[in-house]
Amino acid sequence: MKLISAEISNFRLLKNLKLDFSCDKEKPLTVIRAANETGKTTCQTALIWCLYGSKALPKKGDYSLFPSDEKESERVEVTVEIEFEIEHVVGIGRGNHELRKSTYRLNRTCNESASKNGEARRAGETQNLWRVTPKGTERVLQSEVPAVIENALPESLKDVYFTDGDSAMSFIEAAASQGVKRKRVTNAIEALLGLNILEKTISHLGNVANKFSQEIDNKDYAKELEKLCDHMASYEEDIAEWTEELELAEEQISKIQKELATKDKAIEDALKLGDKEKLVKQKQAVQKNIQRMSDSEKSAYKSLRAVVSNEKMSRGVLAEHLENAKTILNGMNRSKQLPKVNVPILEELLDRDACFCGSDLRADSPDGSARRKNISEAIDASRESDLIQEAASSLFYRIRSIVTEDSSEQWTELYGRESSVLINAQRSLAGFETEAEDIEKTISEIDDSHLQKLKEQRDNLRSALERQRGTQATRNSQIDEARSRLREAEHDSDRVRKKLGKTNSSAGNWDVANAAKSVFLDVVDLLRKEELSKVSSEMNRIFLSMIGASSSNSDFSRIRRAELTDQFDIVVFGPNDRQLNPDQDLNGASRRAITLAFILALTKVSQVEAPNIIDTPLGMMSGYVKQSVLLRTIEEGTQVILFLTQDEIRGVEEIIDKHAGMVFTLTNPAHYPTMLAHKPQYEHTGVVRCECNHHMSCIVCERKGVEVK
Amino acid sequence: MSVSHKKINGLIEKVIEGKEELNYDKDKFIQLCQRIYLIESSVDDRSRSQIISDIRDEIIRRSTSLLQE
């Protein structure tokens, strides 16, 4: 990553400031000359805020951005914009990726106001990123912004690349516990060497290998395929055999059908001479009719008998006599002769002592006895005539309700109908009996032995045809079933073939994924061992070079070597390999130098292109160490941006002349009139930039020869 | 900015060249591992499952030619 420029607006005392950075490979140094209280640290903080937001600000974000010259009640818009170039991997479609250099413009803005007690209220913080192209700018999707920034300058490396003199010793400072220092060093190493990405790669390759592993199963598909092939061959053989039999059966059917047609024709011809069998059937039918007519005849007789014995027939026959009797009896009735009975009355008198008229009837009296004798004689005389009277009365009562009118016609009609039924039945019976006799006679005259033979042959052919048709149906069914099984087996074999192929390829892919995982494990191992050793070695070389020390025992230097241990501790050794206490045994310059040496070594070994933005790195330094630290920093870094005071610059001007691609000066107008020679021409009190280099001064930046009293 | 691709590519090459037991075409296998690192370090906004899927596809795409060697 290379910083190209930054524009800062309303960020504390940076009201409106543009910073440009050298991207020249030959002159990678940018020097921003600035006195104390001119916003050097604020510039760094502004860049950090733009990249990582409020959470990265000092005091965990509880850090006012509000410009000091603004009225408290006013709300201001704070903006920082950075333009930078990075080399990163981008997707180019269809899962393909490529390494590409791109220029981006990152903007972060917010609104902030401050109350009287100095409490800042920040709102509406937004971050936007654009890709700068020859045609203009393209807005980067918000979801991709963190990844681009993380790739450009990971937040975990913030303290590595944004360094100031005061915190430059954070990796070795004695005040921090061993655990904290170790954690800082570990984070820096892991982030800069990309161990996090590599460990994720290893984990993802493990996942990929597992997925391939799931696609492999232990089933022996080759054996299953062989079995299926055997089955298919067997089905094909069966189909061939049954098809042959089917063709034979169909041939036989065709042949039999032709023969049957011939036989049918012969039988038809024979039947023209007389069909005995048919006549027998006809005779049987006639006999059934005879039986039926015989039953009808019996029934007709029965009905006729009923007609003859019917009362209607008597009324019809006796009608005339009945009418005569009625006339006589009616006359007798009218003359009170009917009913007339004497005997019972006379017999009643014999039971009495006196008659109805009062005459004496007593048996012991002579008159009475005589009268009794007369009565008895009268009874005997009346007995015969009473019988006749009784019969006549009975006849009278019985015949007087008999209607004789039309009786003769009704009976005659009924008799005629029943007689007709009987006659018809008798006639039909006679006709059927004659027919039966005729058929019997014809049958006895026919010789049908040839026809019977033909019919037997036809029946045999029909049986044969049925058998062949049975064979045909069976074979068809078997062939259909075999074909169905064959299709199923073919389908299964395709599936097994695919499984077989997939299993093979999955096993191969699984092998490749595991091999790749093994490669990345080895890469991490190399980074942790060999590359860390290189970092340690480089750090030692740069550090000793910076402070002008040597590892030689003959040297008088108190510092002999620096080392990065396996536990990620940065340690410094003196003569006889005695470990030195950084706080007590190292001076301020050496403490800054060892930290810078570690950062530069790590950057060099990782072959990363990234800026080192260092605030007052040369403080506490002078002479050889100052020159050496600056020179080594420029040589080992890829883009070095230094905020230097005039005092720091003193003694290293020639190095700056040689290596600086960009030098300019920042001035705080608030320093007038104490330190600045000229009254500021600006209305605001924010830091201003002029293009004066480390040799120059102007109306903006010229400082007084300050003499403190 | 984390470790450069140049650095990792060099290490991948070094590790694979040192693996004598490897039966694959080494140049192709080096390319595959370097592609996997490219996928992993892409700045595109992708989920973990998408990265795994991309790596899987890359292996499937290239393993055939590796295995044929």
Describe, in plain words, how this protein is organized in 3D.
The complex is a heterodimer of chains A (709) and B (69). Helix content of chain A is 56%, strand content 16%. Chain A has helices spanning 40-52, 145-152, 158-161, 178-192, 195-215, 221-271, 276-308, 311-334, 343-350, 366-399, 407-445, 449-547, 582-585, 588-606, 623-636, 646-649, 653-659; strands at residues 2-11, 14-20, 29-34, 75-91, 97-114, 120-133, 136-139, 162-164, 561-564, 570-573, 579-580, 611-615, 639-644, 660-667, 688-690. Chain A has a 6-stranded antiparallel sheet with strand order 2-1-4-5-6-7. In chain A, strand 4 and strand 5 (97-114) form a beta hairpin. In chain A, helix 5 (195-215) runs antiparallel to helix 12 (449-547) and helix 7 packs antiparallel against helix 11 (407-445). Chain A is elongated. The mean pLDDT of chain A is 84. With 69 residues, chain B is mainly α. At the A-B interface, strand 4, strand 5, helix 2, helix 5 and helix 12 of A face helix 1, helix 2 and helix 3 of B.
Short description:
The complex is a heterodimer of chains A (709) and B (69). With 709 residues, chain A is of the alpha/beta class. Chain A has helices at residues 40-52, 145-152, 158-161, 178-192, 195-215, 221-271, 276-308, 311-334, 343-350, 366-399, 407-445, 449-547, 582-585, 588-606, 623-636, 646-649, 653-659, and strands at residues 2-11, 14-20, 29-34, 75-91, 97-114, 120-133, 136-139, 162-164, 561-564, 570-573, 579-580, 611-615, 639-644, 660-667, 688-690.
With strands numbered from the N-terminus, the spatial order across the biggest sheet of chain A is 2-1-4-5-6-7
Q: What is the CATH third-level topology name of the domain at 1-21 and 39-153 and 666-709 in chain A?
A: Rossmann fold
* Strand composition percent of chain B: under 5%
Mean pLDDT of chain B: 82
Instruction: Sketch the major β-sheet of chain B.
Output: none
Task: Give helix and strand order of chain B, one letter per element, not per position.
Answer: HHH
Total number of strands of chain A: 15
Largest chain-chain contact? A-B, 57 and 45 residues
Q: What value does the Rg of chain B take, in angstroms?
A: 13 Å
Rg of chain A computed from alpha carbons, rounded to a whole number of angstroms: 72 Å
Would you identify the CATH architecture of the domain at 1-21 and 39-153 and 666-709 in chain A? 3-Layer(aba) Sandwich
